[in-house]
Structure formats: C-alpha cells, structure tokens
Design goal:
The chain has 259 residues and is of the alpha+beta class. 45% of the residues lie in helices and 17% in strands. The chain is built from 10 helices and 7 strands. The protein has a 5-stranded antiparallel sheet, with helices on both faces. Helix 2 packs across helix 3 and helix 7 packs antiparallel against helix 8. The two termini are 42 Å apart.
Length: 259
Amino acid sequence: MSQTVDRALSILPLLAQGPADLGQVAERLGVHKSTALRLLRTLHEHGLVYRQQDQRYRLGSRLFALAQEAVENLDVREIAHPHLAALNERCGHTVHLAVYEENEVLYIDKVESRYPVRMYSRIGKPVAITVAAVAKLLLADLPEAERRALAERLDFPMYTPRSTPNAAAFLRELATVREQGWATDLGGHEESINCVGAPIRGADGRVVAAMSVSAPNVVVTAEELLGLLPLVRRTADAITREYSGSAPGRHHTPSEDSA
C-alpha cells in the first residue's frame, strides 16, 4: 500500500512540470501502463489530476483549491510563537512578529524582555514604517514599482538623527535589506533602542512576516545585539520551514525579475 501511495504522489510533481501522457507517466514511474492508468484514474476521481481532450494529464483544480485553503488557514503567529518564546528565553530581549496589511506594518505578537525596562510596542499597533527593522523586511520584498510608489506616499518623520530622511534613502535601504536578507534599526525610532530582524517566508519564497529582537542600549550595545543576528536568522528560518512546509534550505529570495 505504501508503495502505491508513493507512486501516486510521485505523479503530482511530474505533472507540475506540464501535461504528460500515460506513456510518459509510466516511464517516469518505472511501471507498466496499466499500473500508471490505475493511479491516474484514482487521482482523477479525487480531482487531483485532470485528463485533457488530447488524453494528456495535468494537475486538477481540486489540488489548487486544497493548497489555497491550506494557505488561508495557516496562522503564522501560532506557528511562530513557540520559536519566538524560545529565542526570548535564550537571549532575554524583547521579540516581535509583524505583518504588512493594508499599507501598514502591524505587530501581531510580542514576547517581553526579562529585564525591567519595557518597550512601548503593543500587539495590533502600527510600526514606525520608515525606520523599524520588521517594516524594512516586509517592504523590501514588494515589487520594485510598488516599493517606489509607497516610498513616494510616505512621510519621513525624523524621530532621531538616525531616522531615514527621505524616499531616496529609504529605497536604498530597502534594496540593501532585500539583498542581504536581514535588517536593523539602530536608534532610528528611539535613540536608546536597537533592533535586528529577519524575514519569514511562505512556500512561494515571498515574505509573509518579519521577526525581530530589540533591546535598549543600557542593557546591550548595538554591536552586542548584532552578534545575535545568526540566532535571529536561524529562528526565522525555522519558522519559515514550519510555515511553508519546506525542507531546510528550500526557501528562496525572489529575484527582482520575478517580482
């Protein structure tokens, strides 16, 4: 039975490359045509493959519907929280999770630091979009035209002397973040607070959320916080793997051409 299931499932990635006829499926699976036909008929009955008029088979609409339903029912906060809590337990600093919705970056989860100093941030509260590390990560993943249009619409308040001053500087920073795969806010919103963050990606490689570690410079210096970057990135990668259902190393950064 397990061999039958394995063979049936092997048909799906084959058809993902394009329609194939019975002979091609049988050859790829290394089975007789009658065996391949039985497998294809079963998959067809469940809507997972579809037989075209030219007798070739392609992936069925039911498969896409199931995938869409699964994505819609994924809760990145639920998946991420244990990882955020573990990171907080290890480093002791405040950990945030944020998403981009309707032209705002919002915190959707927060694990407080273990020391008495508390950050102003609140779950559901918009992020300072031009300076926050999580905002840079989420916006850097947007297609170039969308990034430019957004930058032109934004105001650029100078929260501190280190705040992003204008659209041109903002776009340069987003390009850097997009290239390097991580972001910082080193006193850009509050002079005494530093932050380092990493992206969480979906199965298609696009950024679905961003996480960060923040700490006041009376607790750790900016350099010490940057030393946590490998740990932050490993945590984000672990959330990505669980959220996207991919094996380690399979997620990717979409190229500008595919944006």
